[in-house]
């Protein structure tokens, strides 16, 4: 069974959900038992109408230089998605903190041998100045 980081721990991927591309997921009648994978360049609008039916959203990062998935994560969380939001693909360890700040709570790396180091990278920073999904108030507001 593949391993991933979920909610700050390395776990086995025990999800038995069928993963569908966005178009197929939208055409499906039983969406609540299937996961959807978002690819760069897809629009979120049709998915947002069914946000309460989403058990798992996977966002594919085909290369570590493609940052569109960060925006998908932020927008899904801002629109009320509370389920598992998983980054998959070719993102790198240095991006995990920022992915987490955008709302991702699970990370499935191409190379599982990097999971331990990647988990450590989630604790690279103890404080953040900017507001984000994981901390909506900027530091100066939290210190007041």
Write the layout of secondary structure elements.
Blueprint: E1 3-6, E2 9-12, E3 18-21, H1 22-27, E4 34-38, H2 45-48, E5 56-61, H3 68-78, E6 84-89, H4 96-101, E7 106-109, H5 115-121, H6 139-142
Parallel strand pairs: 3-4, 4-5, 5-6, 6-7
Antiparallel strand pairs: 1-2, 1-7
Could you explain the architecture of this structure?
The chain has 144 residues and is α/β, with parallel strands linked by helices. Helix content is 26%, strand content 23%. The chain contains 6 helices and 7 strands. It has a 7-stranded mixed sheet. The chain is globular.
Question: Which short descriptors sum up this protein?
Answer:
single chain; 144 residues; alpha/beta; 26% helix; 6 helices
Enumerate the strands of the largest sheet in spatial order, edge to edge or round the barrel.
2-1-7-6-5-4-3
The whole-angstrom Rg is: 15 Å
Listing every helix as H and every strand as E from the N terminus to the C terminus, the arrangement reads EEEHEHEHEHEHH
- For the termini, the CA-CA separation is 47 Å
Shape verdict: globular
Query: Mean pLDDT score, rounded?
Result: 93
Portion in helices: 25-40%
Q: Count the helices. How many?
A: 6
Helix/strand structural class = alpha/beta
In this structure, how is the largest beta sheet organized?
7 strands, mixed
Return residue spans where pLDDT drops below 50 for at least 5 consecutive residues: none
């Amino acid at each position: 069974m593949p391993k991933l980081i979920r909610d700050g721990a390395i776990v086995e991927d025990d999800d038995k959900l069928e993963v569908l591309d966005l178009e197929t997921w939208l055409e499906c009648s039983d969406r609540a038992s299937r996961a959807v994978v978002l690819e760069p360049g897809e629009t979120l609008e049709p998915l947002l109408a069914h946000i309460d039916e989403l058990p798992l959203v996977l966002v594919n990062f085909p290369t570590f230089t493609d940052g569109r998935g960060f925006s998908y994560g932020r927008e899904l969380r801002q629109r009320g998605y509370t389920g598992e939001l998983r980054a998959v693909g070719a993102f790198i360890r240095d991006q995990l903190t920022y992915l987490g700040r955008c709302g991702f709570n699970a990370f499935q790396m191409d190379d599982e041998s990097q999971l331990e180091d990647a988990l450590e990278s989630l604790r690279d920073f103890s404080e953040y100045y900017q507001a984000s999904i994981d901390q909506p108030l900027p530091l100066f507001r939290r210190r007041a």
